């Protein structure tokens, strides 16, 4: 790598924040993605659905650089990321936050310390007391009570751990948020509360959200558009009514199955 | 043209109506904020107005800084656009006192607390081990009355894993220990011209103490840890609960085969270890002291009384029982997460080795008391 200078992101960039073209991922003989295209527009919540094993998490891992794709191009904030070093992409990585499926909190640190980790890593010069204050309000911003700040992840319930994960994902005030199955394993009340939190944060902070989910209620409640992964590609992207108008068998079964109809009717009558 | 981050700054100015105002410029964002928090802290209450009309981009970190400065000085915030007002409202809504770490307790109380907790854990573990040993004996008793229920396959498989497969490593270890004892003994005894007593040293020490003790330590590390990890993992995946609901007793199916394997294999392994150690010692005596093997083994038969062999063979099954009980008990105590399996495995090995050495000391006193010197 000749040029090690970090690429600087244009804050006013208004094109698609994520632009994936011709992505191919494989593990050994098993091809997960083949010619996959997906765009995420600025300011939207894009839900990504697909059956188990269709590579939803692999797609997210490719975009955030944890999985090296075989082919294709990945642009985030209009900057191509593939083949660039960590030093070059540092400014891009500062501008996204990731919530992993299990929360992936550091178990030896308290919730507030977990939030401080990315801040200390990317902005080591920040005043120590101010960093603590920032961590504390981020914890509260994620809907946790202030008493949760000094607790260790093992002392939290599943729902609180997800919120702590969100607090850490938001530590650097990102513009782009990746959520990997945020409501998996939560009870329906906790899941609905988490959906509301996602929506509120997205509106208050002006976030763009890439949301992987299996939860039909989440799709109906908060997603602006939904991308459907099947046959190693994104077979359709659109609002739920647009998807319903398509006659792809998987989409029909997914949204018009008993669970899909239930979630749809709840949204129609509830909201 | 890309919009770059502009470092944030502020100027202090006196407005026409006579109030001190801080006019902010640049981006109020985490990337641009720099040393602003420290500089603003010095102002205290000497500010009446925070003017945001010239700022660029603002994020929650900048909003928090403005909110905090306004809160501490009582200043009013003016000139913010929609973004700034929305973010400042959001962060002021979550301004609650909180701690980053739990308060460290008083050191004296903490030490007392830890001592107390360690004592309780030690006592409950001891009670638990005795209770568990009892339940193993009870189910062994019921199996003797119903021999058809004995799981021969499982028992034989454990014999293989615990005993046969340990032969290589225990043989190698014992051979080296025999060599080292003979070599060190020869060096010391030579000073008195008593090299020939190296044979006594090697023969009696390995038969009486080291053969069985080192074997027990090796088996505790090799099999005791495996018992704890296997049973602990089965506990985590709810296999043990499934067994209970089907009506299979986990003690009968999992613990007894391991217990029997350890109890029966340890005397054999211990005796084998002693013999290999004596061979090692004999080899060194031959090379180093010019004692031919035939003479060496003749001397061994003269100086090692049969009671030494009994001492080793009496201790071995007891050590085996301790190792199996510690391993299986700790495995059964696993609950919660995978980290627990690691902790319990460590505890199983440490407790087994500790109890083996404690009991070895008791045995030494006991055997000298009954005259088996």
Kindly list the characteristics that best describe this protein.
heterodimer; A: 271 residues; alpha/beta; 10 helices; 10 strands; 23% strand; globular; B: 373 residues; 12 helices
Span between termini of chain B: 94 Å
Q: Count every beta strand of chain B, where a strand is a DSSP E run of 2 or more residues.
A: 4
Q: What is the helical fraction of chain B, as a range of percent? A: over 70%
Beta-strand fraction estimate of chain B: 5-15%
Any overview of this molecule?
- The complex is a heterodimer of chains A (271) and B (373).
- Chain A has 10 helices and 10 strands.
- Chain A is an alpha/beta fold and 271 residues long.
- Chain A has a 6-stranded mixed β-sheet with strand order 6-7-8-3-9-10.
- Chain B is elongated.
- In chain B, strands 1-2-3-4 form a 4-stranded mixed β-sheet.
- Chain B has 373 residues and is α/β, with parallel strands linked by helices.
- Helix content of chain B is 71%, strand content 8%.
């Amino acid at each position: 790598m000749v040029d090690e200078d970090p690429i600087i992101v244009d804050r006013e960039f208004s094109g698609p924040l994520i632009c994936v073209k011709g992505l191919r991922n494989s593990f050994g003989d098993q091809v997960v993605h083949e010619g996959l295209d997906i765009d995420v527009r600025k300011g939207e919540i894009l839900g990504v659905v697909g059956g188990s094993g269709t590579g939803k998490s692999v797609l997210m891992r490719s975009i955030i650089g944890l999985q090296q794709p075989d082919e294709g191009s990945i642009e985030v904030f209009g900057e191509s990321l593939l083949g660039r070093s960590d030093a070059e992409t540092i400014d891009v990585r500062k501008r996204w936050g990731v919530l992993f499926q299990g929360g992936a909190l550091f178990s030896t640190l308290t919730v507030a310390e977990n939030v401080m980790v990315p801040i200390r890593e990317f902005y080591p010069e920040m005043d120590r007391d101010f960093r603590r204050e920032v961590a504390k309000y981020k914890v509260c911003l994620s809907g946790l009570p202030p008493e949760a700040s000094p607790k260790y992840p093992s002392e939290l319930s599943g729902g609180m751990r997800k919120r702590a994960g969100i607090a850490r994902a938001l530590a650097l005030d990102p513009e782009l948020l990746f959520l990997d199955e945020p409501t998996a394993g939560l009870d329906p009340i906790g899941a609905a509360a988490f959906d509301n939190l996602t929506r509120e944060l997205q509106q208050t902070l002006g976030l763009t959200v890439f949301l992987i989910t299996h939860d039909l209620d989440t799709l109906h409640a908060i997603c602006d558009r939904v991308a459907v992964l099947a046959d190693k590609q994104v077979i359709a992207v659109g609002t739920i009514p647009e998807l319903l108008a398509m006659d792809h068998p998987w989409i029909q079964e997914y949204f018009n199955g008993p669970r899909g109809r239930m979630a749809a009717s709840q949204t129609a009558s509830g909201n | 043209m890309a919009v770059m981050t502009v470092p944030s700054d502020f100027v202090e100015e006196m407005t026409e109506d006579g109030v001190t105002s801080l006019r902010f410029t640049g981006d109020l964002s985490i990337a641009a904020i720099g040393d602003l928090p420290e500089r603003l802290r010095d102002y205290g209450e000497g500010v009446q107005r925070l003017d945001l009309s010239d700022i660029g981009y603002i994020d929650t970190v900048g909003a928090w800084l403005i909110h905090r400065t306004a809160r501490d000085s009582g200043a009013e915030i003016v000139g913010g656009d929609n973004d700034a007002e929305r973010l400042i409202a959001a962060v002021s809504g979550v301004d609650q006192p909180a701690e980053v770490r739990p308060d460290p307790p008083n050191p004296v109380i903490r030490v007392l607390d830890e001592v107390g907790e360690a004592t309780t854990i030690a006592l409950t573990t001891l009670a638990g081990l005795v209770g568990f040993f009892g339940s193993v004996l009870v189910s062994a008793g019921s199996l003797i009355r119903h021999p058809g229920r004995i799981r021969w396959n499982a028992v034989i498989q454990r014999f293989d894993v615990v005993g046969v497969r340990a032969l290589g490593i225990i043989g190698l270890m014992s051979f080296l220990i025999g060599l080292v004892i003979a070599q060190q003994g020869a060096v010391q005894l030579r000073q008195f011209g008593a090299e020939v007593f190296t044979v006594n040293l090697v023969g009696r020490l390995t038969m009486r103490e080291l053969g069985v003790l080192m074997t027990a330590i090796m088996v505790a590390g090799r099999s005791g840890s495996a018992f704890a990890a296997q049973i602990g993992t089965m506990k985590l995946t709810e296999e043990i609960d499934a067994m209970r609901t089907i009506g299979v007793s986990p003690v009968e199916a999992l613990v007894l085969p391991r217990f029997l394997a350890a109890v029966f294999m340890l005397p054999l392994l211990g005796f084998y270890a002693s013999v290999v150690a004596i061979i090692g010692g004999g080899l060194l005596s031959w090379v180093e002291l010019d004692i031919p093997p035939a003479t060496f083994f003749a001397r061994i038969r003269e100086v090692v009384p049969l009671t030494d062999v009994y001492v080793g063979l009496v201790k071995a099954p007891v050590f085996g029982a301790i190792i199996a009980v510690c391993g299986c008990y700790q495995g059964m105590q696993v609950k919660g997460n995978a980290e627990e399996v690691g902790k319990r495995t460590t505890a199983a090995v440490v407790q087994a080795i500790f109890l083996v050495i404690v009991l070895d000391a008791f045995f030494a006193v006991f055997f000298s008391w009954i005259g088996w010197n």
